[in-house]
Design goal:
Length: 107
């Protein structure tokens, strides 16, 4: 295993950021801290599973990129080029319209 390539790390980080946005916009506004930890772990786990990356490999990669500021800056710059404010990440293929929000929050 080891450090993820720039391309793979960019893809994982992009999805992590999108998961953060989704949780902040639709879940965390009403939940307790205890539930936030559980929900965050679930969503981040889904992102890692989607990319077939272990938690250990992600941590090692994140630490590596953090220890190399130029690489981390390049990574973040690359991700910022992908930003599309109209896109909302849904890890389970859930419709996030207001009428179906209860199914998202219940998870």
């Amino acid at each position: 295993h080891g450090v993820l390539s720039f391309r793979d790390m960019r893809a994982v980080m992009w999805d992590m950021m999108r998961a953060d946005q989704f949780m902040g916009d639709f879940i965390f506004a009403k939940d307790s801290l205890a539930k936030k930890t559980k929900v965050s772990s679930t969503y981040y786990g889904e992102v890692l599973a989607l990319h077939k990356v272990s938690q250990e490999d992600f941590r090692e990669s994140y630490n590596y990129y953090s220890a190399h500021p130029k690489l981390m800056q390049d990574l973040m710059d690359s991700i910022s080029k992908q930003v599309d404010t109209s896109a909302v990440w849904t890890p389970f293929g859930i419709d996030t319209s207001r009428r179906n929000m209860k199914s998202v929050i219940a998870q």
